[in-house]
């Protein structure tokens, strides 16, 4: 494709060209934009409770419907417009939030029914977020993970060297597939960096938590080449259209 050729040529001149990275990302993932898909998920599931880790401007937090109790967690939110009355933000790291708050109590005695993890893009933070979310969920809950389908090795590094970056959040998918085969894990091809759907949760499981340090040792240093030649298979990539997503949520 000529667009891809031009994008690669631009990166040869400027390896930090956000537009070029974005073009390549949209070619690799040709489904609906992740925010559009997240809005569809809200409309389909109509969760009573929604937890969002990583709020930034509040754009995705506002996707929660009025009947949904929505909580956003972010140590440095950049929300400039008022949020709806059903949403509130805890200005804290996700680790501190889970350590200091009774999540069910904050949700009026209910578990997390839908969660969107989009905070730190480092493996260990995403893994801890998933562990904490699952513990406060039910087997029928849904967890969405952002930035788990990297474009290439450079933009998937732990140390951010490009403006367009996913970090090494992708390693969580590899980790969960290996150590939690009971989970249903599918990554929708939603640009720019994928939207992973995790279902079949087990709030009583402590398998990940009990070996956390060992998982750090195994996966933090895992190289990008570990994905092999078939990245889409390694990360359970599926079409990013609504019909595919709806089937996963059935």
Task: Walk me through what this model shows.
This protein has 250 residues and is an alpha/beta fold. The protein folds into two domains: 1-29, no CATH class; 31-248, Rossmann fold (3-Layer(aba) Sandwich). Helices cover 35% and strands 17% of the residues. The protein has ten helices and eight strands. An eight-stranded mixed beta sheet has the order 3-2-1-4-5-7-6-8, sandwiched between helices. Helix 1 packs antiparallel against helix 2. The chain is globular, with a radius of gyration of 18 Å. The chain starts with a helix and ends with a helix.
Write the layout of secondary structure elements.
Blueprint: H1 2-13, H2 18-28, H3 34-45, E1 49-53, E2 69-73, E3 87-90, H4 94-100, H5 103-106, E4 112-117, H6 123-135, E5 137-146, H7 171-179, E6 184-188, E7 195-199, H8 212-219, H9 231-234, E8 237-238, H10 242-248
Parallel strand pairs: 1-2, 1-4, 2-3, 4-5, 6-8
Antiparallel strand pairs: 5-7, 6-7
How many domains? The number is 2
Give the structural class: alpha/beta
CATH homologous superfamily label of the largest domain: Vaccinia Virus protein VP39
β content, as a range?
15-25%
Poorly predicted residue ranges: none
In CATH, the topology of the largest domain is named Rossmann fold
CATH class of the largest domain: Alpha Beta
Main sheet?
A: 8 strands, mixed
**Helix percentage:** 25-40%
Secondary-structure element string: HHHEEEHHEHEHEEHHEH
Cα(first) to Cα(last) distance is 36 Å
Oligomer: single chain
* CATH architecture heading of the largest domain: 3-Layer(aba) Sandwich
Q: Taking all residues together, what is the mean pLDDT?
A: 94
Total number of helices:
10
Cα shape: globular
The strand order across the widest sheet is 3-2-1-4-5-7-6-8
Query: Mind telling me the C-alpha Rg?
Result: 18 Å
Topology, number of strands: 8
């Amino acid at each position: 494709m000529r667009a891809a050729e031009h994008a690669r040529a631009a990166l040869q001149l400027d390896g930090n060209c956000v537009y070029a990275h974005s073009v390549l990302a949209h070619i690799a993932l040709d489904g609906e934009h992740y925010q559009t898909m997240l809005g569809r998920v809200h409309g389909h599931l109509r969760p009573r409770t929604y937890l969002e880790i990583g709020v930034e401007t509040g754009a995705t937090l506002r996707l929660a419907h009025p009947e949904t109790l929505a909580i956003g967690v972010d140590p440095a939110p950049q929300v400039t417009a008022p949020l709806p009355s059903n949403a509130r933000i805890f200005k804290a790291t996700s680790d501190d939030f889970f350590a200091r708050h009774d999540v069910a109590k904050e949700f009026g005695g209910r578990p997390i029914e839908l969660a969107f993890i989009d905070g730190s893009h480092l493996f260990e933070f995403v893994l801890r977020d998933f562990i904490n979310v699952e513990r406060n969920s039910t087997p029928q809950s849904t967890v969405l993970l952002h930035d788990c389908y990297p474009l290439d090795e450079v933009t998937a590094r732990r140390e951010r060297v490009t403006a367009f970056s996913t970090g090494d959040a992708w390693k969580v998918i590899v980790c969960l597939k290996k150590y939690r085969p009971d989970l249903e894990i599918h990554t929708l091809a939603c640009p720019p960096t994928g939207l992973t759907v995790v279902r079949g949760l087990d709030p009583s499981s402590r398998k990940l938590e009990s070996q956390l340090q060992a998982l750090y040792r195994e996966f933090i240093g895992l190289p990008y080449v570990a994905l092999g030649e078939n990245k889409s298979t390694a990360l359970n990539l599926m079409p990013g259209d609504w019909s595919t997503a709806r089937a996963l949520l059935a």
